[in-house]
C-alpha cells in the first residue's frame, strides 16, 4: 500500500545518507478487535491457520485442553499464569481482551507497550538478529525489525519455554516469531504473526491480529496490586473475600 | 526444549497425525482473556443485591465494590468484582464514581460455591445512573456490550 494514501501518517525515513523515502508509520495507540463482532470484512483479520503440533506434543496438549474445558464447564476454571498476575509475554501479549497497545517510533527503535500488565517490547531496527543461543530466555526475547515495503517486519527469538504459547500451545527454545505489521487503512492495523518451531510444530502457525486506532487515548496504568484470585489446595480458582 | 517435552511418548502413524491436526483447527486470531476465566461465577442465575458501599477499590487487575447487604437484622458483606479501570473508564466509570456510604443496587452473578462474592452485571447508583461492567468490550455478562464467548479464551 502506497504511503501517499496515508499522507497524515507517513514518516520520512532516512534510508541513505542525504535521502529519505516516505513510508507508513505504525505509531499510535491501537485496540485489538476480533473478526466476529460485525467487523467490516474489508478490515477484519483473515481466519487463522490451523495449529498443527507434532503428534508427541499434540496428544498431551489435546488432553489438557479437553480437561480444562471440562473443568470450566463445571465452574472450576483451571489456573493460569495471568491469573497470578504474571505477564503474558510473546506472542499472546499482543492482544489481551480489549486492552490498547501503544507503539512508539524513535530513531533505531520501535517500542511496543501494552496496557494490560504494562508489558514492554523493544524492537531494534535494521540490526541482524542474534543467534538463538545467545539470547537469554525471557518473556519478550530479542526482537529486530526492518521496513519491507509497506510492512514492518519483526523477528523475535528467545522466548522462555514457560511462557504460554498461542492458544496455550507448548513451544521449545527454537521458536521464532515473525510479525508483519501493516496499515490496512489509516486507522486499522494488522499484525500477521507466524510462529515457527521445528521441534514442536508440524508447520508454522499463522494468524492475524487486527487493531483500530484510538486517537487521543491516554494509556492507563496497570499495576496488578489487588489480585484476589488464588488457587486453593485442590487446584481450584477462588476469589478472596472478607475485606 | 520445554520441561518434560522430551519425556513425551513418540507417536507414529499418519492417520493419528491427521486427526490431531484437524482437531486443533484454530478459531482465529482473537484476543486472549485478560486475567482469568469467569466460570466460577454463575452467570446463568444473576441476583439483585442492594446495600451500602463500605469500600470502592479502583485497582488492577480488577475494581471491587464492598457492600453491606441487610436482610432484616442480618447484614451480609458482599464483594463485587468488576473489570479493570481501563475497561471501566471506557464504559463511563471514574475512580470516584462510588464512595463509602453510597447506597446502590447491583445485578450480579454470584460465586457458584455459595460464598458472598460476585461478578457485576450492572449497577444502579444512588443518583439513578446505571453502569455496566465495561466499555465496548466489557467483561461482565448482562451488559449489552459484553465480549462474546467466541472472543474469550
What does this structure look like?
The complex is a heterodimer of chains A (243) and B (153). Chain A has 243 residues and is mostly beta strands. Chain A has one helix at 55-73, and strands spanning 11-16, 19-23, 28-33, 101-106, 109-114, 120-125, 142-148, 151-157, 176-185, 188-196, 205-213, 229-231, 237-239. Chain A is built from one helix and 13 strands; from the N terminus they run E-E-E-H-E-E-E-E-E-E-E-E-E-E. In chain A, the strands form three sheets. Chain A has a nine-stranded mixed beta barrel. A two-stranded antiparallel ribbon of chain A has the order 1-2. A two-stranded antiparallel ribbon of chain A has the order 12-13. In chain A, a hairpin with a 2-residue loop joins strand 4 and strand 5 (109-114). The longest helix of chain A is centred in the first third of the chain and has 19 residues, at 55-73. Chain A is globular. With 153 residues, chain B is mostly beta strands. Chain B has a domain at 47-151: OB fold (Dihydrolipoamide Acetyltransferase, E2P) (Beta Barrel). Chain B has helices at 14-23, 85-89, and strands at residues 47-57, 64-71, 74-81, 103-110, 117-124, 130-132. Chain B has a five-stranded mixed beta barrel. In chain B, 42% of the residues are buried.
Task: Write a concise synopsis of the structure shown.
Chain A is 8% helix and 34% strand. Chain A has one helix at 55-73, and strands at residues 11-16, 19-23, 28-33, 101-106, 109-114, 120-125, 142-148, 151-157, 176-185, 188-196, 205-213, 229-231, 237-239.
Amino acid at each position: 500500500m502506497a504511503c501517499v494514501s496515508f499522507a497524515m501518517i507517513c514518516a520520512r525515513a532516512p534510508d541513505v545518507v542525504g535521502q529519505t523515502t516516505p513510508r507508513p508509520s505504525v505509531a499510535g495507540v491501537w485496540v485489538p478487535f476480533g473478526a466476529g463482532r460485525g467487523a467490516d470484512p474489508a478490515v477484519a483479520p483473515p481466519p487463522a491457520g490451523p495449529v498443527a503440533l507434532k503428534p508427541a506434543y499434540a496428544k498431551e496438549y489435546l488432553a489438557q485442553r479437553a480437561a480444562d474445558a471440562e473443568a470450566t464447564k463445571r465452574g472450576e476454571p483451571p489456573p493460569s499464569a495471568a491469573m497470578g498476575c504474571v505477564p503474558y509475554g510473546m506472542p499472546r501479549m499482543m492482544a489481551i481482551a480489549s486492552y490498547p497497545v501503544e507503539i512508539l517510533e524513535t530513531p533505531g527503535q520501535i517500542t511496543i507497550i501494552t496496557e494490560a500488565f504494562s508489558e514492554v517490547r523493544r524492537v531494534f531496527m535494521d540490526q541482524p538478529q542474534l543467534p538463538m543461543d545467545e539470547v537469554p530466555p525471557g518473556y519478550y526475547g530479542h526482537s529486530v525489525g526492518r521496513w519491507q515495503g509497506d510492512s514492518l517486519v519483526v523477528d523475535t527469538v528467545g522466548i522462555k519455554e514457560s511462557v504460554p504459547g498461542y492458544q496455550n500451545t507448548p513451544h521449545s527454545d527454537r521458536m521464532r516469531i515473525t510479525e508483519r505489521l501493516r496499515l490496512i487503512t489509516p486507522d486499522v492495523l494488522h499484525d500477521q504473526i507466524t510462529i515457527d518451531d521445528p521441534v514442536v510444530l508440524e508447520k508454522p502457525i499463522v494468524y492475524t491480529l487486527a487493531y483500530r486506532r484510538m486517537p487521543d487515548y491516554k494509556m492507563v496504568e496497570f499495576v496488578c496490586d489487588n489480585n484476589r484470585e488464588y488457587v486453593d489446595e485442590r487446584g481450584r480458582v477462588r476469589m478472596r473475600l472478607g475485606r | 526444549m520445554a520441561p518434560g517435552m522430551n519425556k513425551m511418548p513418540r507417536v507414529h502413524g499418519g492417520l493419528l497425525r491427521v486427526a490431531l491436526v484437524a482437531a486443533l483447527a484454530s478459531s482465529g486470531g482473537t484476543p486472549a482473556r485478560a486475567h482469568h476465566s469467569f466460570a466460577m461465577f454463575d452467570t446463568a442465575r444473576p441476583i439483585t443485591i442492594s446495600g451500602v458501599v463500605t469500600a470502592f477499590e479502583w485497582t488492577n487487575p480488577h475494581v471491587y465494590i464492598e457492600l453491606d447487604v441487610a436482610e432484616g437484622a442480618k447484614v451480609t458483606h458482599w464483594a463485587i468484582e468488576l473489570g479493570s479501570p481501563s475497561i471501566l473508564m471506557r464504559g463511563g466509570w471514574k475512580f470516584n464514581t462510588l464512595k463509602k456510604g453510597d447506597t446502590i443496587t447491583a445485578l450480579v452473578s454470584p460465586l457458584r460455591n455459595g460464598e458472598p462474592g460476585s461478578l457485576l452485571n450492572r449497577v444502579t447508583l444512588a443518583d439513578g445512573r446505571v453502569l455496566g461492567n465495561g466499555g465496548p468490550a466489557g467483561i461482565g455478562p448482562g451488559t449489552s456490550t459484553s465480549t462474546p464467548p467466541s472472543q474469550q479464551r
